[in-house]
Structure formats: structure tokens, C-alpha cells
Amino acid sequence: MIRAYKFRLRPTVRQAQALTEMLRDHCSLYNGALQERRDAYQHTTKTSIKYVDQSAQLKEIRAFDPERQGRWSFSSQQATLRRLDKAFQAFFRRVKNGETPGYPRFKGAGHFDTVVFPKDGDGCRWNSTPHDRQTRVRLQGVGHVRVHRHRPVEGQVKTISVRREGRHWYVVLACDNVPASPLPSTSSIVGIDMGTVHFFTDSDGKHAENPRFLQASAEELAKAQRHLDTFPKRTRERTKKHRAAARKVARLHTEIRHQRLDHHHKTARLLVQDHDVIAYERLNTAGMTKAPPPKPDPATPGTFLPNGAAAKAGLNRIILDASWGQFLRILANKAESAGRRVVEVDARNTSRTCPECGHIAKENRVTQAKFECTACEFTANADHVGALNVLSRAGLVLCDAA
User: Do 172 and 199 fall within a single domain?
Assistant: First the structure.
């Protein structure tokens, strides 16, 4: 299996400065390569520059600017150019598919936070001892940086990334051939129905509460954002107070993200421990959180009718705060490590189908929480009914696979 390990870095003051300079110079390389592609397409006969062309220029760039570009790892600079190339590949794919293209943008100093070293030993080296929690990673141009290794690293280290989050630094190790740690069988299969009132409801009728971390911190976050908005948005010199206000907003968002991530890991771990097979719905979160289209008023051209955008915005905020996609990814990863199985089923009409007689109707869903079949008068909690239908469809999937 392939797994990633994320550890906190403990750099010295000089090492932190060198890490900041490393991000700055890689960001400059990224923006320069993007500018070259734009100029080549606009000012010549629509010439497209590829990754191979730009990678071949790295030797000349490093020789021309040895203080800013020549001091860093050659392979990490190639990885930065590959990152730009992937952005262009995604852009052309979206154009071809008729989607919103999203042309690659220049990166600001605060929006380029990761440098990738494609191979352990090439510009970086992971120095680890089996029983020492404090280990080090050697980075070209930076030195040996202390790492707080809070758990052992298994498998073979393939790729090393250095990431900045706020004022903290992290190292991310992508490892291959990580052995699985299968859990004992429980002979249990469960279906879960993701929701907003409850985080999810399982087919046994148990509810997992939705903590709503963003809503819990909304007042403090709004106060910090209002204070940040009192400063001019575009000033040549950012004051010390402005930087402090921006850091506070970023810190609050980081705390919310960490709380949500911790909740997802713990909840997924409990599910994996208790069940051999876990079934869930295939959810299109992007479509569910899309803003409603405007409704033109036919009687008055140029005006619009109410379309429920304000209410939909509140629902979208709750869905995004729950972050179902992140939770399901974590659940799938933990299930693979534990030797469990996850089954994805079609989400259509799971909350409108009667689990007793199979009758499907919109009227079966009386309210958000109540289900009452119009054919057989079966009554139950709507989320529990959805979980039961997910479990039933997972049984069909498992039978077809067998």
C-alpha cells in the first residue's frame, strides 16, 4: 500500500529563513515558467512550450542565478515545473470537455507553500532511527532539520515534501510497500447515510452527531475578519497590525480544519473497528452545493424573482463544514489498512424508497426527519431509512461481485 506520513519540523531561526527562501525561489521559478508559456503562445505563432523544453533550460537558469536558483535541488525544481505542466494539462482537459477552463494563475508569495523532492536521497534525505522520536531530514541548501516523529514510518520512502502551514513547517513522506494491519473479523456489515442534522446515521439506527466546527467558531471568526477588513486591501506596505490580523484569521481557519480532520479520523476508526463491510452513498458534493440559477421576472425585464439563494447558501455552508468527501476518503484509507471493505452505492432515491415494500415516491419523505410510506404506511426516521436502503443496495453489489 501507499501511505503518507506528516510530521512537524522544528527548524532553527536560520533554517526557517532558508526554508522561506526556498519557497520564494521555487515560486519565482513557477511564475517565470508560466510567463514564458504565456508569451510564447501570445507573441509567436501560438507556440506551446512543454515541460521537456523548460526542464532543459534549468542548467542555464541555475548558472545565471546561482544564489537564488543554483543553491536548491535540481530535482525539486523539476517537480515545480511538472506542477505547472499538470496545471496546463488539466486546463486543456477542461477546455476539451466543455467545462469551465480555469487558466493557470501566477502564485503569490502566500499561496505557494509546498516544495516536492521526487526521490529520497536526491536533494533530500530522510535520516531515521527505529527508536528515536526526534529524527532529522536533510534538505539541500537548508541543512539537517529536526523532525518530531510521533509514530514510526513503515515501508520505503519514495517522495518527500516540505510544506508551510501558517507559521509552522511540516514534512510529508509518501511511502510505498506499507504493510497492512488487518483487524479481527466482526462479521458485521453496515450502511451509513450522510446528513446535515446528524453527521451520519447507520443502518442500526445509531446517529453520529454533527459537531459543526465552523458554526461553533463563526462569531469569533467573523469578528477577526471584520477587524482585518478595516485595513486597506491594496497597500504597498503591509503594516505589522495588518499582518497580525491576517495571521489570526488564518489561525482560526487552521484550528477549524484540524478539529474537523481529527473528528473524521476518530469517527472513521470506530466504524472500521466495528464492521467488516461499510456501505455509503456516492455523493456529488460539488453539485449539491451549487448556487441556484437566477429566475428572471417575465413581467419586468432586467429584474429577477426570489430563487432561495440565501437559504441554499446556509445549507451549502453546513454541507461543506461536514466535509463528507474528506471523511469518506479517510474511511476508505483506514478500511484498506485494516483489511476491511467499503462499498459505494447509487444515492438516488435512498431517502424516498420504502425499505418494507420498495415503493418510491417523493411524498414518502414527509419532513426532513420523518419517513412515512404512502403505500404500506411504514413509518421511521428518514435518515435511518436511507441507511437501510444503502445497506440493501450494498448487498446486491456484493452478490454481483461474488
Answer: no
